[in-house]
Design a protein that fits this description.
The complex is a heterodimer of chains A (347) and B (265). Helices cover 32% and strands 25% of the residues of chain A. Chain A has 347 residues and is of the alpha/beta class. By secondary structure, chain B is mainly α. Chain B has one domain. Helix content of chain B is 75%, strand content 2%. Chain B is globular, with a radius of gyration of 20 Å. Chain B starts with a strand and ends with a helix. Classes of the chains: A alpha/beta (347), B mainly alpha (265). Chains A and B meet through strand 1, helix 1, helix 3, strand 7 and helix 4 of A and strand 1, helix 1, helix 4 and helix 10 of B. Strand 1 of chain A pairs parallel with strand 1 of chain B, so a sheet runs across the interface.
Chain lengths: 347, 265
């Protein structure tokens, strides 16, 4: 059971009746520190409601600085940030109330205080009254399996539970924008899975705009509707995740066949499969490779030449080899990320 | 979808609630860290007693104890608040919660008010504990008058101004722990905790008046001894309190803004 709670809107906006088209609008954002370090350089991003943006980059690329500038915790050197229509520089107090944030490498909540005290504090911090916060705090703690230990100091919790409290504190006022800097860092499998489910639910079911940074690229691939890759402070890719993956799809085809290769070698000297049962004797097209993958065998053809593919499939049919799937070779986000990071910067 | 509306920013009622929220949090944290305050109180009670015995040749000289006790209580307020304020903000910076506290409509000025209220409770708690122990334990008698309250309140405010300044510096200065310790020693020695300020040479006595709590303690001692409150000291005390509180608040707000510019939150 996951909490579905009211949407938080600043009263000013209710009166104004001007819903923002994009939850987060970042334009020409740069940050140069006094040391001369250019941490962020001309970043422009837009995140609509109900979208998870994966902001990816190597260490020191500028992810955290960008997140903190969006949260109003670092003042940009140039550029503009609007959160649900509120300008962070000029309408800071309204803008920051649109945000719930879990920041990287920090506790985010007061460890000496209990989970309950933390949620009440962070709710009141945004101007809500205790009576307004308590039902939501109860619901959040129940949904996150923390209700039974709500009065214990957060410092006594496990890492996963502490992170859940940080997430609950970020959500206590039901903000429309969630900033998550490494939210699954250091979590075990179960806690990580819970956090991922929540992130997905927040965007898909509750329509929140989520900005997520993580070094766990499989997490980013699972959750992000859109991926922005930042390197040396510059955005070098900003695309819907599917489109990014499609762009890097390779001109190779992978055929998966049920059955395993024999233990001592996948191919004989003539490019014929040495396998179990029906796989034995299947001749591979020129340049193709085969490798065992659990109970199946993966054959990768060196091109997308349909004649070659059909010929190979016909051969499989003749041998009675059970076909599992045929697909274009698709590198995962991690592989694409590494390629992007290492490619020469465009002039 | 139903709507949970946030109250309008800038309303006085909201400001009061935001200050109260900071104060409440400060008191909750104080309660969790009460062992620290109790250790501070015990340590300074022992040091104070040790010096009284040393000066009295192995005996407690009650008039001397009575003359220096207000300074000890003022020092307890100032130093407890400074240590808790500085330690608290350092913990918040390292833990990342200081950044989280900036994600609300409260200005740094409002937050500093809330912090100050919590620091007051912490400092007064330590002072009351010490006061009760020595006044009851050694039968110290003062002539309490309503007028005593004025320098007492001003002395507490002066100590809080100092605590606020130390807290504000913590946002920027890494080695604030050592600086606080040195200041603490100076206040203890020159503020009349060990020996009354009046025993110092005139030049040193003049210097001590620039330190937190000294002027307040002089005014307090004067009223406790039955002398008039309206001496030249009171004016200087009011000025000292005003300057130290304004300086503390200004430095705090500036340092938070600077941390925002330089990525220190």
């Amino acid at each position: 059971m996951i909490v579905t709670s009211p949407h938080l809107v600043a009263e000013e906006e209710l009166h104004r009746g001007r819903p923002a088209s994009a939850a987060i609008e970042v334009a020409g954002l740069s940050k140069t520190y006094r040391s001369g370090l250019v941490a962020v350089n001309d970043v422009t991003l837009t995140v609509p409601p109900g979208t998870v943006l994966g902001l990816l980059g190597p260490n020191g690329a500028g992810k955290t600085t960008t997140i903190k500038m969006i949260a109003g915790l670092i003042v940009p050197t140039t550029g503009r940030i609007r959160l649900n229509g509120f300008d962070v520089a000029r309408q800071r107090s309204q803008a920051v109330r649109q945000i719930g944030a879990v920041l990287e490498g920090s506790r985010n909540v007061y460890w000496p205080l209990s989970a309950w005290q933390n949620l009440l504090y962070f709710g009141r911090l945004k101007g809500l009254r205790g009576a307004e916060i308590k039902p939501r705090a109860r619901q959040l703690l129940t949904d996150l399996d923390l209700w039974g230990r709500r009065d214990e100091p957060v410092g006594s919790y496990s890492r996963g539970m502490q992170q859940k409290v940080a997430i609950a504190a970020a959500l206590i006022t039901d903000p429309p924008i969630i900033l998550l800097d490494e939210p699954t860092l250091g979590l075990d499998v179960e806690a990580g899975r819970t956090v991922k489910q929540w992130i997905s639910m927040l965007a898909r079911e509750q329509g929140k705009a989520v900005v997520l940074t993580t070094h766990q690229l499989e997490v980013a691939q699972q959750l992000s509707d859109r991926v922005a890759v930042i390197r040396q402070g510059r955005i070098i890719a900003d695309l819907p995740t599917r489109e990014l993956l499609a762009r890097y799809a390779e001109d190779r085809v992978q055929v998966r066949i049920a059955g395993t290769l024999s233990g001592t070698g996948s191919l004989n000297g003539t490019g014929t499969l040495n396998g179990t049962g029906s796989l034995s004797g299947v001749v591979l097209p020129t340049g193709a490779t085969a490798e065992a993958d659990g109970e199946t065998t993966r054959v990768t053809l060196s091109s997308t030449d349909t004649a070659e593919l059909y010929g190979f499939l016909a051969q499989l049919a003749t041998h009675g080899a059970p076909l599992v799937s045929v697909s274009q070779v698709q590198p995962d986000l991690e592989e694409i990320f590494v390629r992007l990071i290492h490619q020469e910067p465009a002039e | 979808m139903s709507t949970l509306a946030l109250p309008r920013t800038g309303s006085p009622a909201l400001a009061v609630r935001l200050v109260a929220n900071e104060t409440r949090k400060g008191l909750q944290l104080l309660w969790r860290r009460r062992a620290l305050t109790i250790t501070f109180v015990v340590m300074h009670a022992i040091t104070f007693l040790g010096f009284r015995l040393l000066i009295g040749g192995g005996h407690i000289v009650t008039p001397l104890l009575a003359a220096t006790l207000p300074a000890l209580l003022a020092f307890a307020v100032a130093q407890t608040a400074a240590l808790q304020g500085s330690g608290g903000i350092a913990e918040e910076i390292n833990g990342g919660t200081l950044g989280q506290t900036q994600l609300g409509p409260a200005s740094p000025q409002l937050q500093v008010l809330g912090r100050l209220a919590a620091l007051t409770a912490e400092g007064l708690g330590a002072a009351v504990l010490l006061g009760v122990v020595f006044i009851l334990g050694y039968g110290v008698h003062y002539s309490y008058r309503p007028a005593t309250l004025i320098p007492a309140v001003l002395t507490v405010a002066d100590g809080l101004g100092y605590a606020l300044l130390i807290t504000a510096f913590t946002v920027r200065v890494v080695s604030i722990g050592a600086i606080t310790h040195v200041f603490g020693m100076a206040i203890q020695f020159f503020g009349g905790v060990l020996v009354p300020v009046s025993v110092f040479p005139h030049a040193v006595e003049t210097f001590t008046r620039f330190l937190p709590t000294t002027l307040g303690v002089q005014a307090l001692n004067a009223t406790l001894a039955g002398r008039s409150l309206w001496t030249g000291t009171l004016g200087w005390l009011v000025l000292h309190v005003g300057v130290s509180l304004a300086l503390g608040a200004t430095v705090y707000v500036r340092n938070i803004r600077r941390a925002r510019r330089e990525g220190g939150l």
